[in-house]
Amino acid sequence: MPHQKIINDLKKGDISPVYLLGGEEAFHIDKVSDYIEKKLLDESEVAFNLDIFYGMEVDPAKVIAICREFPMMAERRVVIIKEAQKVQDLDLFDDYILNPSPTTVLVIAKKGKTFDQRKKVYNPKSNPNVVTINTKRIPDYKLADWIQSYTKSEGYSIDFQNAQILSDHLGSDLSKIVKELEKLFISIKPGSPITALEIERNIGISKDFNVFELQKSIGQKNFKKAFQIAIYFSENPKAHPIQMTVAALNTYFTKLMIFYYSNDRSDKGLSTAMGIQPFFLREYKEAARYYPAKKVVSVIGILREYDLKSKGYEAGSSGHNDWHKEMLFKIMY
């Protein structure tokens, strides 16, 4: 992870005068920015040597003047511009970035926007004063891998299936995922594995009644188990909104469609095309016994129908508490 390399370099004392943090994934931008803000200065140095500016309030001339000031009773100054995507004249910093003060660390954090490294000023290869990252959002199918990697970096472990349960339930917001993981870290001993029981106790995701188990039950045509989960979801709409279920099932059946039409029929080729761990391929092979390609197309249509219903279109007379059971009946019969 590029952001982790930056943090590791900072810990070793390899500090650059300018950090340009951009891209889609705000979590990684915040990790670097927060580390610089909280770790590069001692507590006694912060009051006179840390300046933080936000988006629209940034006056480039004023900020550059502060960057040129000498630190006060400290080795360096730290100047951070947050929400830099809202700064209209960001290019006014270009001359400073090419010739920065050696006693100032300037951080420009631009969420949702990238720094064009075709420009010499933003490219570390042509401008040795700058460290630039453009973070990318982690694809949904890689979230479980990311959860495992992050958990390991914090001194804990989690198996892929439990990581998948977390990603299915929590979505792609890494900050939200980390917040929930921290609850688990507090509750177990360092080095211990995160189990389904701990997830249920601390986050409230049932090890038996979750989207992951629902997908598995649908794929196996296990009517009893699938409808037990659907009833549980209907009775707990805040924890299991229909929108989240539709999104997860749409991903599941889209992968099943890819299973049918992938040119590479090897296990490795199928797993890569579907964006899944090879371990889970057998579940999709079993699902393919019950859901031919034509049925999969029909199911995706049903999911779109309930996606529209959840947004208020053609909701019909049935109450939203019945939608899980109603949708499941249409999918499985």
Provide tags for this entry.
single chain, Zinc Finger, Delta Prime, domain 3, five-stranded parallel sheet, two-stranded parallel ribbon, 16 helices
CATH architecture of the largest domain: 3-Layer(aba) Sandwich
Q: What is the CA-atom radius of gyration, in angstroms?
A: 25 Å
Apparent shape: elongated
Tell me the helix content: 40-55%
Strand order of the largest sheet: 2-3-4-1-5
* CATH H-level superfamily title of the largest domain: P-loop containing nucleotide triphosphate hydrolases
Q: For the record, give the distance between the C-alpha atoms at the N and C termini, rounded to a whole number.
A: 45 Å
CATH class of the largest domain: Alpha Beta
> What percentage of amino acids are in beta strands?
5-15%
